[in-house]
Specification:
Elements: H1 2-29, E1 33-37, H2 42-53, E2 56-58, H3 61-64, E3 72-76, H4 78-86, E4 92-95, E5 100-104, H5 117-127
Parallel strand pairs: 2-5
Antiparallel strand pairs: 1-3, 4-5
Helix pairs in contact: 2-4
Amino acid sequence: MKSAMGQVWSVTGLCLPAIALAAGQAQANEPRYPFDIKEQSLPEAINRFGLAANVQVIFSPALANGKTSHAVQGRLSRDEAIRGLLRGTGLSYRFTPENVLLVFAPTPVPSAQPIARGDAVADAARQQ
């Protein structure tokens, strides 16, 4: 069993650097855009991002109003830049295949509610 585990780890150890290298190459192949967006109101920063990255931007100003962006400067990929702008705002984003940036509030995942099993079991027993 130990020798099999050792082989799994050695294979994993060889694969992880290759995966990291491939991910780095994919990022290196992404187009870089010159960004010079100062810290400012989030709606204004998102609009400036759209101009600099040459993408259409869709977002609800109500979600962004009252929030401040982080500064983003340098030659960055679109993902790097928008992640930097939105950091700490609670907003998410995605790019559509049509080259549109959607900025949105993530939908909260409902938490599991405990089942009140005692009452249901007692009701079923009474009905029988």
